[in-house]
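Thread: Newbie trying to understand structure tokens

Hi all, I'm a second-year student working on a class project, and my supervisor (Dr. K.) asked me to get a predicted structure for one chain before our next meeting. I've only ever worked with sequences, so writing a 3D structure as a token string is new to me. If someone could post the tokens and maybe explain what I'm looking at, I'd be very grateful. Here's the chain:
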Amino acid sequence: MKKVAVIGMGNMGSAIALSIRDRFTLTAFDIDKEKVGVLGFKPSGSIDEAVEDADIILIAIKPQFIDKDFLKSIKRDGKSYISIAAGIPLSALEKNLGSRNIARFMPNLAAKEKKAVTAVCFSKDAAEDFKKDAMEVANSIGSAFILPEKSFSAFIGASGSLIAFALEFIRASAMGAVNMGIPYKEAEKIVSDTVASALTLLKDGKNAGEVIPSICSASGTTIRGMEALEENGFANALYKAVKASAERSDELEIDSKERLA
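---
Reply by user tm_fold:
Sure, no problem. This is what the structure looks like when written as tokens:
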């Protein structure tokens, strides 16, 4: 059984650790050792202790704490690395870690429910057995998509940040129902269940553009509502929100490249 050292046991690191504990032998390090113990893991006394016998080192600390000194502290010959730190490009990891086996993950916050959607990319010369292990880790917390690294910022807009946009859609829709007489708690449950039911219509390769016309009967209630969405810029607002998140991701990545150059 391969050994994985998880460095950083925050929300994402702990979610991954709990999901893979039956598939890999784990060591875990966090500055807050009590946090590691509460999750049922024996905390390592130091980073050195955590990574000593690991095959794969999972970097799960906040990106603002990743600098040259930190990467030097986990650099070991023959080790493989997975980073879930947003905005830290493969080029910076490769330069500072000196490993051919590096994977970059971009999971969203549903990891703790094992419903994350994760983008994955690999260093150019990554070994196939490492890729297999990395994908096992990624799929343990939900679904995973191998993408070119240049698409990661777009992925953040369309997935990482989109969770907040989707929740705002649910909140605003529920408030509309409140305005029409349904109490908020019940309205939010109705809207949430409806969103889940809508996704079941995207089966058998169908896309949203194909399904929506079948819901909109001529001169009916749904087409009237769709008209209101169009008049108030619903689609354009989402388009711009995804784009804005992606552009901010690009900015953060440029900062990281300069900091780790």
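A couple of things are worth pointing out once you decode it. The mean pLDDT is 94. Residues 160-245 form a domain with the ProC C-terminal domain-like fold fold (CATH 1.10.3730.10). Feel free to ask follow-ups in this thread.
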